[in-house]
Amino acid sequence: MAAEHSIWLLPSAPEEEALAALVASLAPRFCGQAFGPHVTVQGDLARPLEPLLRDTQMLATRSEALQAHVSGLEHSPHFFRCLTLRLDAGAAFDALQVHMAHCNGSREGLSPYAHLSLAYGDASPQALAGAALAAIEREWVGRRMVLDRLAVVHSSKTVAIDQWRVLATFELRPVAYWQR
Question: Would you say residue 158 has pLDDT above 50?
Fold first, then answer.
């Protein structure tokens, strides 16, 4: 079975719209492909869809929305972490990963840390120079972001970005209180 699914956390509506516009504006500078803003919990999963959907839905019913603090704007030579917002999502993100790894029987594809990619590609000095990094930092670093849904997505490093599709979304429980 091919690895063709991922589990994503999705930002709440206001952030999702603004981030989608930012990703689309940056795409031509990097790999040229826009994608939906997301935080990967676990990617490159080779599991039948029905059990994956069932496990993800069950996890969503047991999990609260995550409140993440945007702690930095980073770039790296890694294609899928070319330009990212580093997130401090605390123990809640770690717990989601532990639960997903248990359900999926593997730690393969777990994101190395909580981040939201803004662009994929080569973080060359030329690409970064025209990306208005200072403006992105002013806009996003220091903000609180709410991640309120889990999504099962047809995506992996072997599936072309323009073929990625959200197959199902599951609302996370509202947070009982917001930390300041």
Answer: yes
Cβ–Cβ under 8 Å, residues 27 and 33: yes
Whether the per-residue pLDDT at 156 is higher than 70: the answer is yes
Using CA atoms, how far apart are residues 82 and 30, in angstroms rounded to an integer? 8
Contacts 24+ apart (CB under 8 A), 162-168: 162/33, 164/35, 164/36, 166/8, 166/36, 167/5, 167/49, 167/53, 168/53, 168/56, 168/57
- E strands, 52-143, where? 66-75, 83-88, 115-119
End-to-end CA, the chain: 45
Taking the whole predicted model, whether its pTM rises above 0.85 is answered as yes
Beta carbons within 8 Å of 98's beta carbon, 6+ residues apart: none
Residue keyed to tokens 């594809």:
109
Comparing CA positions, the residue from 173, 165, 167 lying closest to residue 149 is 173
**Which run of H or E residues covers position 142?**
none
